[in-house]
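Write out the 3D structure for:
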Amino acid sequence: MKKLRVLLLMAALLFCVGNASAQCRFRNTAFKSGELLSYNLYFNWKFVWVKAGTASMHVVGSNYKGQQAYRASLSTKGNKKVDNFFLLRDTLLCYSTTDLAPLYYRKGAREGKRYTVDEVWYNYAGGKCHITQSRRFKDGTHRTKKFTSEECVYDMMNIFLRARSFDPANWKKGYEVNFPIADGNGTDPAKLKFLGRKVVKADNGVKYNCLQLSYVEKEHGKWREIARFYVTDDSNHVPVRLDMFLKFGSAKAYLTGMKGLRNSVASIAK
């Protein structure tokens, strides 16, 4: 009996240690290694939409500190004509476990005259989610902070990977998914809100049946919509159009191509 009690205690301790990591895990049904998505970017300049450049997102199987992982990268590149008005050079990178628990996030952002590098590191020791955050500035200065949560914390890239595997079959308009979102400067409440379904034409000339999702963050006590996603209403949940509400204007991205998808494209509108 004593040995049994010891074994049960050890099992309980192991469960507690793995609890935070387990709650951050999620079955990937939407993408596979080798997926490549490409986009045209448009920026609103004095009420006129002009082509501002291109963007691409790539997901590959990788290795992070000795464990199998997904490596996802998103890069944007502005064209030289628009650079005279607004310089856009963003590169986002993340690593997640093969069951979508966040491991690392990096964002290098050159927007106008501002340049910052944000990084977030994750670990799940003691059954909690621990993150270390860093922000570096153009002048070389930087600041770091640490944050521990009983629940899983995400960043902009890792929540995007997880959200693609959500099952919206029973969602009704107005349904919300809440989560903490982290960058190099802090952690804030955020949510995805389902706004219904809509047919969207991509820049590849194809029309898709899409789910419409609003990404909202709480800043200084007020909710602010950061972006609106139109993703294919099929198992891939590929973003066809993104509307980005920037502090200095607005931008849009339209799909131009997709390769290496995990599932067949069943969302093409008739």
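The chain is about 15% helix and 55% strand.
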